[in-house]
């Protein structure tokens, strides 16, 4: 029988320890995107609930020192406690829990009801409760609360909350085109040295372009290190951006396109690599002058604030919000309804995640030319096809791959192989669902292929699918898109010719021509059937 943990002895030991450190109610924070400098629990003392303040600050300090949580998350925990203490001080409860260990499920149910009455709209009530609940989980883990989480927390206290809250929505094609045009105008001015905005606005322009090109989240983007840009292992026109996503407790890798950038100002490309290199170049001289905690960051600039003109600072989320609003106002950017356009890194990420963006390979300027006079026609036309053939592909994967997708260092996929189909760059990362973004494998850093006929057969079958797509989209508005597909076809030929034996390649090509991999064969047959319906 497992030994039962003695919570009371541990609680007593911790409480005794606090008698000598009652002055340590403040936790000083390192630099963080919220720009918070400290978490101060002295404000929570003297109301009859000192144990809550003391034990919570102990947990928060431990989490900070252990690197288990982002600073912004810890600030949220303290805010969650603040609202719970406001609830206790309101007198709603006849007998309030003076310590965390006296908390019951009934107390939490009353707290939830109080939040709902106080904040009836949106997700405010849920956010405050979620922050407090997260803190409670750690109070349980550290032994300050004896009850287990499943005995304490009410199930599903905010049902249907998602229906009342709006997630960041992607920009429409028209909105994105207007944004790109404005960014290009500012980028030209930056290269010419005629940009009229301040240093923070200059860096914001280049950060927005990098965000639109990479899809990196806000905090990892702001804290991106100067050595983040790395070569892509497979595709010369791509680079990898390595950043740290704290919530995922590890590194994340994103691809970013590198194009030929012309020297003439009017031909400057919105190329992610070139723009990021420009930001690195402009901030290079500031590295030695910057405080140690930000000297490794990309988005450094001289402060424009009065009395601090020579101070070296880095973009923060707060400054970014201000400079983006100024950017939209300067260019008079409106949304499709005629109101001022709201631009955030989250919206750019959502836009990049859309299938239309993926179709373009991430090149919005090329998408604009592909779309022509009616963007919705091309969008709906192509996506409808993808939705239909995706069903057939999903059925095939479900029947044929389950045994092969387990226990292999390289997972077989329709275009070749994957280093990690569960947690790769484009995978859902839920630990259960394997990645199915096979059309985008070649631009994914997790893509892998070995010199075996089976792998090359899959790759050349995918190449045959690309040919079939080109045959289907023959109208003029798809000319630029066809050129990109032809580049992928040529890339596959050049790469395999330089890496694998000629006889092996010919054998795999012949096999793909005679009998394409079933996954791609289903898609090819579908498009050929559609072509037949046209004529």
Features:
535 residues, hpI Integrase, Chain A, mainly alpha, 51% helix, disordered N terminus, 3-stranded antiparallel β-sheet
Report on the structure:
The protein has 535 residues and is mainly alpha-helical. It has three domains: 7-164, no CATH class; 173-353, hpI Integrase, Chain A (Orthogonal Bundle); 371-534, no CATH class. Helix content is 51%, strand content 7%. It contains 20 helices and ten strands. It has helices at 7-18, 50-66, 71-89, 105-118, 124-141, 149-152, 161-164, 173-192, 199-214, 218-222, 272-283, 317-330, 345-353, 355-360, 364-371, 375-400, 453-472, 479-499, 502-514, 518-534; strands at residues 26-28, 38-40, 229-231, 238-245, 250-257, 300-302, 312-314, 411-413, 416-418, 447-448. The strands form four sheets. Strands 3-4-5 form a three-stranded antiparallel sheet. Strands 8-9-10 form a three-stranded antiparallel sheet. Strands 1-2 form a two-stranded antiparallel sheet. Helix 9 runs parallel beside helix 13 (345-353), helix 17 (453-472) runs antiparallel to helix 18 (479-499) and helix 17 (453-472) packs parallel to helix 20. The longest helix has 26 residues, at 375-400. The chain is globular. The protein starts with 6 loop residues before the first helix and ends with a helix. The model is unreliable at 1-22, 259-269 and 355-408 (pLDDT under 50).
């Amino acid at each position: 029988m497992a030994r039962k943990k003695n919570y009371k002895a541990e609680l007593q030991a911790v409480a005794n320890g606090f008698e000598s450190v009652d002055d340590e109610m403040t936790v000083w924070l390192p630099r963080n995107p919220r720009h918070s400098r400290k978490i101060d629990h002295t404000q929570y003392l003297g109301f009859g609930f000192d144990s809550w303040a003391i034990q919570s600050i102990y947990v928060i300090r431990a989490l900070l020192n252990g690197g288990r949580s982002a600073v912004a998350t810890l600030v949220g925990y303290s805010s969650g406690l603040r609202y719970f203490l406001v609830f206790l001080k309101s007198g709603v409860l006849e007998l309030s829990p003076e310590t965390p260990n006296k908390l019951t499920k009934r107390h939490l149910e009353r707290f939830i009801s109080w939040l709902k009455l106080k904040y009836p709209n949106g997700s405010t009530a849920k956010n405050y409760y979620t922050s407090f609940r997260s803190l409670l989980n750690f109070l349980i883990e550290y032994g300050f609360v004896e009850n287990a989480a499943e005995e304490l927390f009410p199930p599903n206290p905010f049902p249907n909350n998602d229906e009342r809250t709006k997630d960041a929505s992607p920009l429409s094609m028209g909105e994105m085109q207007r944004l790109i045009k404005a960014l290009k105008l500012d980028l030209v001015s930056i290269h010419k040295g005629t940009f009229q905005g301040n240093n923070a606005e200059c860096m914001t322009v280049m950060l927005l372009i990098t965000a639109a090109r990479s899809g990196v989240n806000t905090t990892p983007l702001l804290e991106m290190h100067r050595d983040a840009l790395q070569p892509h292992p497979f595709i010369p026109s791509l680079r990898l951006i390595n950043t740290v996503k704290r919530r995922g407790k590890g590194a994340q890798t994103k691809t970013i396109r590198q194009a030929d950038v012309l020297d003439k100002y009017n031909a400057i490309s919105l190329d992610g690599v070139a723009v990021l290199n420009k930001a690195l170049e402009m901030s290079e001289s500031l590295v030695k002058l910057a405080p140690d905690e930000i000297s490794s960051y990309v988005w450094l600039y001289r402060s424009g604030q009065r009395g601090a003109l020579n101070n070296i600072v880095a973009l923060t989320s707060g400054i970014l919000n201000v400079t983006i609003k100024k950017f939209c106002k300067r260019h008079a950017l409106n949304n499709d309804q005629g109101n001022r356009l709201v631009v955030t890194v989250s919206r750019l990420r959502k836009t990049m995640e859309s299938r239309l963006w993926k179709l373009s390979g991430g090149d919005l300027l090329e998408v604009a030319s592909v779309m022509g006079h009616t963007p919705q026609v091309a969008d709906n036309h192509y996506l409808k096809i993808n939705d239909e053939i995706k069903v057939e592909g999903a059925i095939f994967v479900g029947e044929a791959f389950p045994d092969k997708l387990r226990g292999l260092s390289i997972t077989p996929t329709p275009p070749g192989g994957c280093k990690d189909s569960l947690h790769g760059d484009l995978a859902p990362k839920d630990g259960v669902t394997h990645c199915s973004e096979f059309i985008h494998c070649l631009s994914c850093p997790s893509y892998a292929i070995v010199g075996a006929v089976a792998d090359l057969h899959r790759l050349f079958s995918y190449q045959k699918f690309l040919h079939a797509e080109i045959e289907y989209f023959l109208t003029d508005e798809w000319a630029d898109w066809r050129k990109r597909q032809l580049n992928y076809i040529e890339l596959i030929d050049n790469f395999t010719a330089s890496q694998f034996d000629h006889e092996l390649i010919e054998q795999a090509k012949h096999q793909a021509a005679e009998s394409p991999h079933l996954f791609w064969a289903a898609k090819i047959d579908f498009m050929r059937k559609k072509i037949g319906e046209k004529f």
